Amino acid sequence: MSSWISRATENRNAQLITTAVVSGVVVGSAILGFQKARRMYKVADLKASIPDVDEEHHATRLTEYGAATNAFAPSKEDKRSMELAARARKGDYDDDLILEQLARNRVFLTDDGLAKLRSSFIIVVGCGGVGSHATAALARSGCSNLRLIDFDQVTLSSLNRHAVATLADVGTPKVHCIRRRLEQITPWTHFDCRNELFSEATAATQLAPDANGQTPTYVIDAIDNIESKVALLNYCHKNGLPVISSMGAGCKSDPTRLFIGDISASTDDPLSKSTRRRLRALGVKEGIPVVFSTERPGPGKAQLLPLSDEEFKKGDVGELGVLPDFRVRILPVLGTMPAIFGLAVANHVILAISGYPQEYLPSKNRDSMYDGILGTLQGSEGRIAKDFGYNQEGLRIPITKDDVGYLIEEVYHGKSVVSGLSTRLALVRWQKPTTDFIDKRTPGQNNSLLRMNDLVCMTKEEATKHEKEVLRGGKMPGEVWDGKVVEAVRRKMEEESKYERFR
């Protein structure tokens, strides 16, 4: 071994390599030592900057939620309520006292209806203004097994609309705030609090059966984030979970405009429109009850204002949100409206579970109209194909009845883009197709390459004129219709292209 070392050291290349390795080790050690020393100095400086605990700088203990506040220390009544709730959940509570507290609901819903309510398992997703009022009403009415899901904390601005939050709750998770306050009213209620963001990836876990294996009796959607809302409703619809959704309460002020109906019938609400549109793209067009307002915006009414130029100049507007794709502007909310929405949601759930009779707005039943529009479109495509020398016999178009309903209701709102009329509607191509708009690659199959974004909504008379002069003639749309119509079509197609990614 020693002879090998002596031979290696005599070799000049080996000497250079050895020197380089040793130098590298020394330099690396020096750099790491310097970084460690710098960290130590920074930590020391940080510790030195923390004032000593004295009368001027006093310390406070962290609460059970991690918030450093003792502005309102738990009162004796709070401690007594928590102890009572802990015992009640273990069964140490007289059932006769519970029935006495629920006496008014008992005589209204009957013993059988109340028993169904008490044995139900309800999940509330979103515990803000709407969700907190829904949860409070459910607990007060006898629902004794509730799962609460919300990632957010109580803020000062929450107090204008939250059902139970107080100043002492600011900075604490909304789910625990609701649990702590409602335990003082219905101590026997079991709360499963999930301080989490609902998402498509976690839906199966968050909507799973409870600890006893009971599947959710009902799910309440009180989310105001469009991505999470669509994910929740789509999951519930596809998995057969009863669900009711609250649409937007922001900028609303007229309680007489509130309705409960199928999602296909909800109108005049941007949140509802976006939700319906994305759900239709996922194949869900009806079958979900929603609470919505038909109140329209008007002069002097609250509205969501655009972000100022100053905010855009600061950089990426998306960075202003607490989460990706989450709202970055404060939505004007009258404190009473979320409460009305939340109570309407809870009312629906209570009646549905207990079996109490209820009737709501029927959904739009326009399938026969969609069939007629689809047939008219099929005929139009056949005539255009014939003009191009194709055989129109057996021609297929890749548009379904659901696609027709989506275009008529969601894109064109049941009105002609030309005249605004809502009767005798039809769908027709906007631009004359190119010669290769028929796919004949498969033997025996003759189908059009028509896309949804190629179509516009007109009355039958307007569609006939458009087909004659534009699609089968030599004119451009701008030569037949005025500039306002052309611009309206451009905006509609541009808007629809943004929703294509959800299909």
TrEMBL record:
Gene3D superfamilies: NAD(P)-binding Rossmann-like Domain. It holds the Pfam family ThiF. GO terms for molecular function: ATP binding; tRNA threonylcarbamoyladenosine dehydratase; ubiquitin-like modifier activating enzyme activity. SUPFAM superfamilies: Activating enzymes of the ubiquitin-like proteins. The chain crosses the membrane at residues 14-34. It is found in: Mitochondrion outer membrane. Its main location: mitochondrion. GO terms for biological process: cyclic threonylcarbamoyladenosine biosynthetic process. It is a multi-pass membrane protein. Keywords: ATP-binding, Ligase, Membrane, Mitochondrion, Mitochondrion outer membrane, Nucleotide-binding, Transmembrane, Transmembrane helix. One of its GO terms (cellular component) is mitochondrial outer membrane. Catalyzes the ATP-dependent dehydration of threonylcarbamoyladenosine at position 37 (t(6)A37) to form cyclic t(6)A37 (ct(6)A37) in tRNAs that read codons beginning with adenine. Belongs to the HesA/MoeB/ThiF family. This is THIF-type NAD/FAD binding fold domain-containing protein. It comes from Didymosphaeria variabile.
